[in-house]
């Protein structure tokens, strides 16, 4: 069987390999999630369990795919940062994007029954992915700030919109009422009309979710003495903090530091 | 909130857009399926239900993602051919690869309980994907021939190997016995030692699986007369035929023809 | 001297390598030739010597750079076709473009005094270059037709424009008179107003210039008998024919044929 | 004339556009300069006029092509640094490479008779070009250090080699004598055998040539008073200094600074 006769077709394969010493961001996005969230009765403006499912999947990707040092998620999207020093998959675009998007999707369907024991998955969801290369840490930080600002703007809007709708307005009227309003107006409206202090809402909604490896104090029982001791361990954690200002990064210099 | 301040980071996004009038092949591959098939007790050399699950997922991708005119699968891989005239996703690499690999994975986990009601999915599987561009139909045909030859060679080898093992040989001895043998030797061995006529084995194992849209005769009952009439309808079908020779293609000129 | 310390910077080099079995066109264009032709008093609408200089340079490129099977020039641009089977420079984009544009430019300055012995080169001209990949011979033929149609349209317009100007019109009036006219109108105007039969003008102006290797009959004197014999030899030739219709190509199947 | 019928071929054009905020280096190299220098009797190990011609051409490119903030040359190669903030040619690869290599070549042939009035150019030289993208200033600095180290190593070797040859050794014997020697050995050999203090040789040979815009003191005569005044002006200058250490850059923060 003349196998070799056809093998020349491998010469048509091309690889995009990203430059060394650059930061790579793989961002995945739910495809058609407008319909998906409607079909599966997600709570509005935020469905806490749906966000927890996203975080669980992202954590799986974070722990299994090499080279990822940071992840940020909001709504139906997640950004995974591949460290500038990572050589995982030799920095090949197709491998990085397809592996991350595939594993994330797999985890989503896999964990659905655990997170939503009462709600059946009606059809299989899918995500698309892309990869963007950022040459410096400063620009990467701006990328992450861009996503967190996006989370804030969307969440503030959606909180107002759904509060209005839940108070009896039609969606058209709610939309009209919010048109042209600034952040301050929206905060004011929530507070005066509905007694909602936006800044007291759960930070997972306002700040999105951050996955990093960080030092955590854990208690260990000394087997010999029975004494309880605290030890600092490096663990994967999910937090909901401001990543626009410097404080978060100054407290965790190991995240973006040289590996 | 100075959204605009960070939006410049979008300028770093790059798109690979494939040339018009070229054939695109998205090939997906199971990641770490050696371990996955072992953990999930797949039958050797072929697990029919596992192949049917692959085909079911591929069929879902075939029907949902635009521009795909042909798909070919064997083992834990599947190739999807995007027609040279397709403008789906504007021929953007990241969108095509990530959407197909994500949907395929989602379907795999989603349909698992249906196909394997008796076997629990122990951990979420993942696939990687790549896209290759072929400039002419002739070279595309050589690509598909390459995959079908690969299917044949692997299946003949695996059939011999597992037959020897099931007959009591150790895996090391089976491997040694097959070393350096030609196709003819392997056919001979199966026939004389084990009474197996290789060419009579199921074609899904020997030829792999092909998904196309094809004309199918369907019976319709005329509501007025109650008469049963045959109608030719275009349907998505899965077949297991030779795609190396011309016959398959000559019988179905619509598959690769101008759209 | 720690040479190795810095050599890692080579890892940042990237190569664009074109797909096998595709046609590559390197097109070069004069940069700022509006000013260049004005400064050097080129005749209008066509300067025959300037075109001959372009052809001479293109011929030098054609003969020195590997893999080129066809070249087409008009005005201050030239297209070089790299054969689909060529492996020259391993089909690397930067090598192909830079070598061709550099050699062409070098020849232009080098041959200037020979072609224009009476006119000094006042400043060094430059060209830019790009490379485009065409997947099939049919599309390559369309590319070449596109350029020859462009040559025809521009030349017909320029011939009318400069004939009007030379007859005493201002450039503004000449432009206005031609606005909205069709090819037929322009032919008619040249004939009735100025007695010019456009189709009798030199084909180098109307058709552009084509460089190919072709069979040429040459006379050889037999040294023994003194007899003159005709021999067919393959030579690089410059011709000015129609390349849109099939005839040119049917007469010369070796040009685009398999190598 | 159906122009539009063929214009679809423009859809095949692709542009590589470099990432914003990255440093681009266009490096050009003489093609076949071994033969070129032999044919044109260049002095060994260094021909001062040939280097001056290279510098003159590089200076022309530096002054005419936008976005270049630094250039470094040695032997028959030159590197042009496009500033990270430059938007010239929209950072398109083909435009940048082809324009720079074409203009450089044009200047080389154009200025040849001025620099070598006694030596005719026997055939047209050509250069190839490539472009490399560096994400940070630190890595760009390492690139430039790499080239200057290369200049030093080659020049020390060539100085020894040609001194040995000029002292009567065959080229084979000279090569053998230098095999395996370290820098210190070569310096020692030049000094003890030939009385040459390598560090006293012209810095253009040892350090290569650097082109930058820098502040230069110029004398101006005040028209009113006739007084001579010194003014600092920004001028394009060619220098031959160390660019590996920080001093050069600390003295000229404007070169790589934000534009």
Automatic annotation (TrEMBL), chains A, B, C, D:
Residues 6-135 form the tRNAHis guanylyltransferase catalytic domain. Mg(2+) 1 binds at residues 29-30, 76. The chain crosses the membrane at residues 96-113. One of its GO terms (biological process) is tRNA modification. It catalyses: a 5'-end ribonucleotide-tRNA(His) + GTP + ATP + H2O = a 5'-end phospho-guanosine-ribonucleotide-tRNA(His) + AMP + 2 diphosphate + H(+). Mg(2+) 2 binds at residues 29, 76. InterPro entries: Thg1_C_dom, tRNAHis_GuaTrfase_cat, tRNAHis_GuaTrfase_Thg1, tRNAHis_GuaTrfase_Thg1_sf. It is an enzyme of class 2 (transferase). GTP binds at residues 29-34, 75-76. Keywords: GTP-binding, Magnesium, Membrane, Metal-binding, Nucleotide-binding, Nucleotidyltransferase, Transferase, Transmembrane, Transmembrane helix, tRNA processing. Its cofactor is Mg(2+). Binds 2 magnesium ions per subunit. The keyword Nucleotide-binding applies. One of its GO terms (molecular function) is GTP binding. Its EC number is 2.7.7.79. Gene3D superfamilies: 3.30.70.3000. Residues 139-245 form the Thg1 C-terminal domain. Belongs to the tRNA(His) guanylyltransferase family. Adds a GMP to the 5'-end of tRNA(His) after transcription and RNase P cleavage. This is tRNA(His) guanylyltransferase.
């Amino acid at each position: 069987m003349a196998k070799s006769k056809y093998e020349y077709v491998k010469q048509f394969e091309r690889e995009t390999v990203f430059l060394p010493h650059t930061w790579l961001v793989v961002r995945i996005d739910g495809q058609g999630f407008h319909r998906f969230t409607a079909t599966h009765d997600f709570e509005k403006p935020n469905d806490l369990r749906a966000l927890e499912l996203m975080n669980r999947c992202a954590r799986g990707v974070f722990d299994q795919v090499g080279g990822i040092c940071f992840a940020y998620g909001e709504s139906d999207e997640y950004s995974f940062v591949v460290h500038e020093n990572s050589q995982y998959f030799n920095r090949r675009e197709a491998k990085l994007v397809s592996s991350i998007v595939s594993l994330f999707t797999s985890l989503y369907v896999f964990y659905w029954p655990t997170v939503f024991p009462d709600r059946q998955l009606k059809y299989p969801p899918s995500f698309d992915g892309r990869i963007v290369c950022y040459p410096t840490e400063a620009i990467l930080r701006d990328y992450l700030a861009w996503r967190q600002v996006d989370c804030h703007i969307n969440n503030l809007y959606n909180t107002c919109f759904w509060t209005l709708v839940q108070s009896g307005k039609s969606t058209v009227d709610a939309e009209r009422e919010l048109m042209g309003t600034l952040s301050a107006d929206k905060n004011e409206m929530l507070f005066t009309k509905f007694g909602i202090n936006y800044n007291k809402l759960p930070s997972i909604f306002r700040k999105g979710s951050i996955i990093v490896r960080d030092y955590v104090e854990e208690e260990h029982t000394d087997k010999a003495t029975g004494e309880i001791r605290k030890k600092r361990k490096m663990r994967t954690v999910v937090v909901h903090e401001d990543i626009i200002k410097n404080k978060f990064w100054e407290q965790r210099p190991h995240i973006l530091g040289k590996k």
